[in-house]
Design goal:
Organism: Chryseobacterium cheonjiense
Shape: globular
Radius of gyration: 30 Å
Distance between the termini: 80 Å
CATH class of the largest domain: Alpha Beta
Largest sheet: 7 strands, mixed
Function: E1 component of the 2-oxoglutarate dehydrogenase (OGDH) complex which catalyzes the decarboxylation of 2-oxoglutarate, the first step in the conversion of 2-oxoglutarate to succinyl-CoA and CO(2).
GO molecular function: oxidoreductase activity, acting on the aldehyde or oxo group of donors, disulfide as acceptor
CATH topology of the largest domain: Rossmann fold
Cofactor: thiamine diphosphate
Structural class: alpha/beta
Domain Transketolase-like pyrimidine-binding: 476-650
Number of strands: 24
Strand content: 5-15%
Length: 810
C-alpha cells in the first residue's frame, strides 16, 4: 500500500535541516525567477509576465505530498510547485517567457502558452502513452478563471474508478487508484460557477481531491468582500464540511501562507484524508502576499493602501520563513542545534540569484540562436536578389536596423522581397522561394500542428467496416440498435464508461442504455447530478488518465453549459501541449428536431466555430451513431456525437456485426442519386430532405441527396464537388439559424472544393428562422425548414432558368 507523507517523516535532525534549507533555497530561486521575469518583460525581451511570488511556502508544502502518478489541475501561479516536483527548470521557465518553440527547451507548451502555464508530457513522440505512474503529472493549464476545475473532478474520479476497473495497460495509469488529483485556484476565482459545481460534485462522489485556494485578499484589484457572499471562503464552505460517519462533504483546512510548519501539517493531513479515505479536501491558504502585484500589466500600488503594502512586506512568506529558520533551535544530547546562521541564508540568497541569472542567460541565448540561425540561413538568398529590384536593398537596410529581431521580421523581409520580384523567373528568386517554403513548413509545425491527433490512432485512420445484414437481421427501434451496440462496446473495451443525467438506473431518457448499469455496474454506467460543465470535466480528466469516457449531455441545447470547457480546454489539449497530452473523450448528446424552445435547438455553428480541435459527428440515424462510437473508440481524437432525438422510435434494421462496424469520419454518403441539383444536409433534417427530393422528382427535378455525416472533418475526399460537377446546382439545407452551419458547409464546398466553377445558378441555403423553434409540431413546421419550404425554394431555382418548363408556383 502507498504510504503518506505523515507515515514517512521519521528522519534525523541533519536530514530535517537539509530539507528545510533545500526548501528555502528553492523558494528563493522561485522568487528570483519572478523578479527577473518581470524585468525581462519591462525591458521588452518578453511580451507579458504573470508570476507566483508570494505563494512559495504553501506550494513547497503541497509538493511534499505530491507523489508519482498524482495529477495537478491548476492555476498559472504555481511555479514554485512546478519547480519542486521537477516539472520546471529555471531555463524552461524563461524559455516559456520568451515563447521558445522548442519542445526540448519548453516542454510544457513549446512556446504556445504565455508564462506560468505548466504541463508535463503524458505522451511519447508517436502519441502513445507514457507510464504516468512513473512521473508526477501536471495537466496543461488554461487561463480562463476556474476553467481548470471541471477537469480536476475527472482526474480525481479516475483514481476511484481504477480501484475496480482493470484492463490491458491500466498499470501505466494507476496503482490501484491510490493517486490524488490536486487543484489550485485563486481566491477570487472561487466566485465562478465552475468552482462550486466541481466542489459540489466532488463532495457527492467522494473522490481523492485536494483543492488549494490561494487567498491574497483580492481578485486583481477587487477586494474579496466584493467577490462573494462571505469574505472568508472557509466560512462560506462550512456547510460542505463532512460529518462523522457520512459519505458526503469534504474536509476544510485553513492555514496561513507564511506559517511553514503549519503548512506542512495542513498538507500532511490533507493527503491523509484524500489518499487513505478518498475524501475531498479544501486547503484555504490565507494571508497570501503578492509582492509584484497581479501581472506586468499593472501596479498593485494603485489599489492597495500603505498599511496593506507594509503588512505584505512584513508577512512575505520568504521573510517569515527566514525568521523561523533563524529562530529555530533544539537541544539534542545536551547540545543546542540550529538550522542555519544569517550568513548561511544570505549565501543561499546570493546563490539563488546567480542560479536564476545563469538559467535566464542560457534560455535567452538558446532562443536568440534560433532566430540568428534563421537569419543566417535566409539573408544570403535575399541579398542575392538585390540586383533584381532596387527596393530589396532598402528592405535589407530596414531589417538590419532593427534592434531586436523576431521570426516575423525575417518572414516579412522574405515575403516583401518575393512580392517585389514577382514575375521574375531567376535562379536566385527560385532559390529564395525554395528556402521560404522550407522555413514556412518548420514554423507551420511550430505554431499550427496538433490541433487534431497526428498519431497512428487519429480518427481519419480508422478503416471503414460496413454493417453486415442477413435474413435474420431484425427491424427494431433505433434505440435498440444503439443500446445493443453499447453492450458490445462495454464488453469489448473494459476501459470504457458512460455517465450523465439519467444514464444509469433508467438507461437514459430514450432507453439507449437500457439494462447497461445492471449488467456492467454503476461505476461504468453511472448517473450524475444536473451539472453539465462537470460532466464534461469528468470526461476530460478521465481521458487524460487513460480511460475511455463517454460523457453524456442529455440534450444538445444543454451542451452550451459545456461550451467553455469544450472550447478552452478539451479542444486545445493536444494543440496547447504540441502533442504532449491528449483527452480522447466522446461527448454523447441528442438533439435537432423535436418540440420546443429548449429541446430542439441546433447550436451547431457555435460548436463548429468555438470547438475546432474536437470532431463533430452528426449521424442521420442510430445505426450511423453506433458506427461512430465504434470508430471513435479506436481513435485518440475527442469527438461530439449528436444522436437524432426523433429517431429512437423509428425502425432500423439491426446489423449483425454490432460493436464492429465503423462509420469513417470526413466521408459523405450519397443517399439518393440525381442529375439536376445537389442537396447537402445532415442529421434529422436528412429525412425531410429525402421527402422533398421525392416530391421534386414528381415535378421533373432529379435531386441528388448527400448526407455529410461528419462536419469536422468535412468531406476529406471532396466527393461533393463531383456531385456538383454533375448537377451544376447546389443547395445546402440545415436546421441551424441563417448563416450558421449552412455558411460553414457552403464555405467548405465553394472555397475548399472550388465548386463555384461548376454552378449554373447561385448556390442556395435553406435554414431555420433566426429564433428558437416554437413548441409542438406546428412550431417545428413554421420554425425550421419543412418539406414544403424545400420543394418550393429548390423549384424556384429551376423556374428562374426555365420558367416555361417550371412555371411559378406563387
Amino acid at each position: 500500500m502507498q504510504t503518506t507523507y505523515i507515515e514517512t517523516q521519521q528522519i534525523s535532525f541533519q536530514d530535517f535541516r537539509n530539507q528545510i534549507l533545500e526548501d528555502y533555497k528553492l523558494g528563493r530561486v522561485s522568487r528570483e525567477m519572478s523578479y527577473l521575469g518581470r524585468r525581462e518583460v519591462l525591458t521588452g525581451k518578453a511580451k507579458f509576465g504573470i508570476f507566483g511570488d508570494g505563494k512559495e511556502l504553501p506550494q513547497l508544502a503541497m509538493a511534499k505530498v505530491f507523489r508519482y502518478g498524482d495529477f495537478r489541475s491548476g492555476y498559472y501561479r504555481d511555479q514554485t510547485f512546478a519547480l519542486a516536483v521537477d516539472a520546471l527548470t529555471v531555463e524552461s521557465f524563461f524559455a516559456q517567457l520568451y515563447a521558445d518553440t522548442s519542445v526540448e527547451r519548453e516542454p510544457a507548451s513549446a512556446g504556445r502558452q504565455m508564462n506560468g502555464h505548466f504541463a508535463t508530457r503524458s505522451l511519447n513522440e508517436d502519441g502513445s502513452w507514457k507510464d504516468l505512474t512513473a512521473q508526477k503529472n501536471i495537466s496543461s493549464d488554461i487561463s480562463p478563471t476556474a476553467g481548470q476545475m471541471p477537469r480536476l473532478l475527472g482526474l480525481a474520479q479516475a483514481s476511484k474508478i481504477y480501484k475496480t476497473v482493470k484492463f490491458e495497460g491500466s498499470e501505466k495509469f494507476s496503482k490501484d487508484g491510490n493517486e490524488i488529483a490536486f487543484g489550485t485556484i485563486g481566491d477570487a476565482s472561487t466566485a465562478e460557477g465552475h468552482f462550486w459545481e466541481t466542489l459540489n460534485a466532488a463532495c457527492a462522489l467522494q473522490v481523492p481531491m485536494i483543492v488549494s485556494i490561494w487567498d491574497d485578499g483580492y481578485g486583481i484589484s477587487v477586494p474579496t468582500m466584493k467577490q462573494r457572499a462571505k469574505a472568508d471562503i472557509a466560512e462560506m464552505l462550512s456547510g460542505f464540511q463532512r460529518k462523522e460517519g457520512e459519505f458526503q462533504g469534504c474536509e476544510i483546512i485553513q492555514v496561513k501562507a507564511w506559517d511553514y510548519p503549519s503548512l506542512l501539517d495542513a498538507y500532511a493531513r490533507a493527503e491523509q484524508f484524500a489518499r487513505m479515505e478518498s475524501i475531498p479536501v479544501v486547503v484555504h491558504v490565507v494571508e497570501v502576499t503578492q509582492p509584484q502585484g497581479h501581472s506586468t500589466s499593472g501596479s498593485h500600488e494603485r489599489y492597495k493602501n500603505e498599511d496593506r503594502l507594509a503588512w505584505e512586506s512584513q508577512f512575505d512568506g520568504l521573510v517569515k520563513f527566514k525568521e523561523w529558520i533563524l529562530n529555530y533551535s533544539i537541544e539534542i544530547d545536551g547540545k543546542e542545534q540550529v538550522l542555519a546562521t544569517a550568513e548561511e541564508l544570505d549565501a543561499i540568497d546570493e546563490e539563488a540569484k546567480k542560479t536564476v541569472k545563469a538559467g535566464q542567460k542560457n534560455a535567452w541565448e538558446n532562443y536568440q540562436k534560433t532566430i540568428t540561425d534563421l537569419i543566417s540561413s535566409v539573408l544570403p538568398f535575399v541579398e542575392n536578389l538585390k540586383g533584381q529590384n532596387s527596393e530589396i536593398e532598402n528592405y535589407i537596410s530596414q531589417f538590419n536596423k532593427l534592434v531586436s529581431k523576431a521570426k516575423k521580421d525575417v518572414f516579412h523581409l522574405v515575403r516583401r522581397s518575393l512580392l517585389a520580384t514577382r514575375g521574375t523567373n531567376s535562379a536566385e528568386r527560385n532559390q529564395l522561394m525554395q528556402k521560404y517554403n522550407e522555413i514556412f513548413e518548420v514554423e507551420k509545425d511550430n505554431y499550427s500542428s496538433h490541433l487534431y491527433s497526428q498519431s497512428q490512432w487519429k480518427a481519419e485512420n480508422v478503416k471503414e467496416i460496413k454493417p453486415v445484414y442477413s435474413e435474420n437481421s431484425e427491424d427494431v427501434d433505433g434505440r435498440v440498435v444503439v443500446r445493443n451496440n453499447f453492450d458490445k462496446i462495454f464488453e469489448k473495451y473494459p476501459e470504457t464508461l458512460v455517465f450523465g443525467e439519467d444514464a444509469g438506473n433508467i438507461g437514459d431518457v430514450n432507453q439507449g442504455l437500457e439494462g447497461m448499469q445492471e449488467k456492467y455496474g454503476d461505476v461504468r454506467v453511472a448517473d450524475t447530478g444536473i451539472r453539465e460543465a462537470t460532466i464534461l470535466g469528468q470526461g476530460i480528466g478521465m481521458a487524460m488518465r487513460g480511460l475511455r469516457p463517454i460523457a453524456e449531455i442529455q440534450y444538445l441545447d444543454y451542451i452550451l453549459y459545456c461550451l467553455q470547457g469544450m472550447s478552452d480546454d478539451l479542444a486545445t489539449v493536444q494543440y496547447r501541449t504540441k502533442g504532449g497530452q491528449k483527452a480522447p473523450v466522446i461527448i454523447r448528446t441528442r438533439g435537432h428536431r423535436l418540440e420546443g424552445v429548449w429541446h430542439s435547438g441546433s447550436p451547431m455553428a457555435g460548436i463548429l466555430n468555438l470547438s475546432k480541435g474536437i470532431l463533430v459527428l452528426v449521424p442521420r440515424n442510430l445505426t450511423k451513431a453506433a458506427g461512430f462510437y465504434n470508430t471513435m473508440l479506436q481513435s485518440d481524437d475527442p469527438a461530439v456525437i449528436v444522436e437524432c432525438l426523433n429517431g429512437y422510435r423509428l425502425k432500423e434494421k439491426q446489423p449483425d456485426n454490432l460493436g464492429e462496424f465503423t462509420v469513417p469520419v470526413g466521408k459523405i454518403e450519397v443517399t439518393k442519386e440525381g442529375n439536376d441539383v445537389t442537396l447537402v444536409t445532415y442529421g434529422s433534417t436528412w429525412r425531410i430532405v429525402m421527402e422533398a427530393a421525392e416530391e421534386l422528382e414528381k415535378l421533373g427535378i432529379s435531386a441528388e441527396v448527400i448526407d455529410v455525416q461528419s462536419l469536422i472533418p468535412f468531406d476529406l475526399t471532396h466527393e461533393i464537388a463531383e456531385s456538383v460537377k454533375k448537377t451544376n446546382r447546389l443547395v445546402v439545407i440545415d436546421e441551424d439559424v441563417e448563416g450558421g452551419t449552412s455558411a460553414f458547409i457552403l464555405q467548405q464546398i465553394l472555397e475548399k472544393q472550388k465548386t463555384f466553377r461548376f454552378l449554373d445558378s447561385d448556390p442556395l441555403t435553406i435554414s431555420a428562422n433566426d429564433h428558437r423553434p416554437a413548441y409542438a409540431s406546428d412550431g417545428d413546421y413554421f420554425s425550421k425548414p419543412s418539406s414544403d419550404d424545400m420543394v418550393e425554394k429548390i423549384y424556384a431555382l429551376f423556374n428562374e432558368t426555365n420558367p416555361q418548363k417550371y412555371p411559378a408556383i406563387f
